[in-house]
Amino acid sequence: MSVIATVAVPAASFPLGSIVDPDADDTVTVETTVPTSEGIIPYLWVPSSISSSVVDTLESNSSVASVTTVDELDDSVLLKLEWDGRVNGLFEAIRRHEAIVISAVGTADRWTLRARFPTSADLSAFYSECLERDVPIELVQLHEAVSPALERRFGLTRPQRDLIVEAYELGYFDVPRTTTLVELGDRLDVSDSAVSQRLRRGLTTLIESTLTLETASVTDPDASESATGTDR
Asked: Which CA distances in Å does 49 have to 72, 76, 152, 163, 192?
């Protein structure tokens, strides 16, 4: 069974390097990237306010062959990167072990990636290879991939689940928040108002199918007896 791992590395150890100003509180995000034998071509979402400086930094990176602006939405710019074939270290380990990068977020200090590995053995080999390559990697979170049947057990639609997971991974629930409804909408290609409504409905469904049922089973005698099949 495949496994999903969240890992973090210092910005200096990431192939893109520190493309965010250390004095700024900005973040950049990577679109879902499937490594191939032809190379890794990530798509980066960067704040419009720093897009020019990010492009300059990337163009000065010896591993980057070209940088192209693909789209501009509200306060974000989508950049496409092409590598010159000399990428190694973390990206090479990702490619060698057939991992799929589900999401990645970068700040001035570090990059956090969420990736799916075919098996736990592939993840273990990936982790070991990073250490052998002197990549100071940190395993932040690990869990097995969830089957579609289990995904539906909380009553969430797939779009609701995807949004809640995306919001969690990108730090929408963190204090302070590291992403906004507008940025989530850009990533999911929906309006920020639609994101807000979907998020509220999804969280309401999640709470109703977990916390309120759990509370009822503990505090409501009728609910407890009904759960055990006893009628009064």
From this structure: 12, 8, 40, 25, 20
